[in-house]
Automatic annotation (TrEMBL):
Gene designation: LOC117348136
Signal peptide: none
Membrane topology: Multi-pass membrane protein
Name of protein: Olfactory receptor
The G-protein coupled receptors family 1 profile domain, residue ranges: 41-290
Record-linked PROSITE patterns: G_PROTEIN_RECEP_F1_1, G_PROTEIN_RECEP_F1_2
Membrane-spanning ranges: 26-50, 59-78, 98-120, 141-158, 204-226, 238-260, 272-292
GO terms under cellular component: plasma membrane
InterPro entries per record: GPCR_Rhodpsn, GPCR_Rhodpsn_7TM, Olfact_rcpt, Olfactory_GPCR
Record-linked CDD domains: 7tmA_OR (cd13954)
């Protein structure tokens, strides 16, 4: 089929729920609940941290950034999913698809780098506690956060720009929940070899480097904790990084599965499930993980609630 250039009006047909039309009301309800829960959880976490001066530390500063990214991630995907499920029109425009892809991939790559920075923060806190305030000063944290957001945006811009050079057919089917790089490339009519090569390079330079830095940080953290003699101090040290380690494990599993093998496998239902894990489920679980496993956050929440009740 002859490809059409970017100036032509192109629509993508989102074919994610067609195999189970009778379950679409259930899908709509589930996605709506997930979206509201993600928004509420991340807004609450951000509000708690901002309102309590005791939480104005580097770890919670980066946690606010994580909450903002989770909100961006779910907002980029779920509202359009709800619209597609609810309406008879199952299409998304070319420009709308690219905008969704850019926002989502930018949030994804930024979160990838941010988790590595948060691992470094825990490394400094546990392995170099006496120098923590100096090594993780406000200026350093601000520069790290700015670099994280900039690198994530640059990575997303690179992939989106390469997709702009592709030609797409008049009728395009994306067998996915939303416009993500791998399924969009599979819908292209022109050769995507360069795109796949760049994805693999980004996986190595960005994903694998961040993964290795996280592993190295936690290797030193574990070795330091094992040298602590007091069982109580061991428990306290581990509790400061347990939440982050849980989030990292959940996030990296889905991302590695989806992006490490973009050009070497066919579409499957497993792809959708793994994408849902890091794009939809993780933003819901992150606030829960950080609040339920963190006494400081729970105490700050109680303080905030008591203050509002009294007022």
């Amino acid at each position: 089929m002859e490809g059409l250039n970017q100036s032509t009006s192109i629509d993508f047909y989102m074919k994610a729920f067609d195999s189970h039309p009778e379950l679409q009301p259930l899908f709509f309800t589930v996605f709506l609940i997930i979206y509201l829960a993600a928004l509420l959880g991340n807004v609450v976490i951000t509000t708690i941290i901002i309102s309590d001066s005791r939480l104005h530390t580097p770890m919670y500063f980066f946690l606010i950034n994580l909450s903002i990214l989770d909100i961006c991630c779910t907002t980029a995907a779920i509202p359009k999913i709800l619209q597609i499920i609810q309406s008879k029109d199952k299409t998304i425009s070319y420009s709308g698809c690219l905008a969704q892809l850019f926002i989502f991939s930018s949030a994804l790559s930024t979160e990838l780098i941010l988790l590595a920075v948060m691992a470094y923060d825990r490394y400094v806190a546990i392995c170099h506690p006496l120098h923590y305030s100096t090594m993780m000063s406000r200026r350093t944290c601000t520069l790290l956060a700015a670099a994280v957001w900039l690198l994530g945006a640059m990575n997303s811009t690179m992939h989106t720009t390469l997709i702009l050079r592709l030609k797409f057919c008049q009728e395009n089917t994306i067998r996915h929940f939303f416009c993500e790089i791998p399924p969009v490339l599979k819908a292209a009519c022109s050769d995507t070899f360069i795109n796949n090569v760049v994805i693999i390079m980004a996986d190595v330079m960005l994903g694998m480097v961040c993964f290795l830095l996280t592993v190295i940080s936690y290797t030193y953290i574990i070795l330091t904790i094992l040298r602590i003699r007091s069982a109580e101090k061991k428990k306290k040290a581990f509790s400061t990084c347990a939440s982050h380690l849980t989030v990292v494990s959940l996030f990296y599993g889905g991302v590695i599965y989806t992006y490490v093998r973009p050009a070497f496998s066919s579409e499957s239902e497993v792809d959708k499930v793994m994408s849902a894990v890091y794009a939809i489920i993780s933003p819901v679980l992150n606030p829960i993980i950080y609040s339920l496993r963190n006494k400081e956050v729970i105490n700050a929440l109680k303080k905030l609630l008591n203050r509002n009740v009294v007022s």
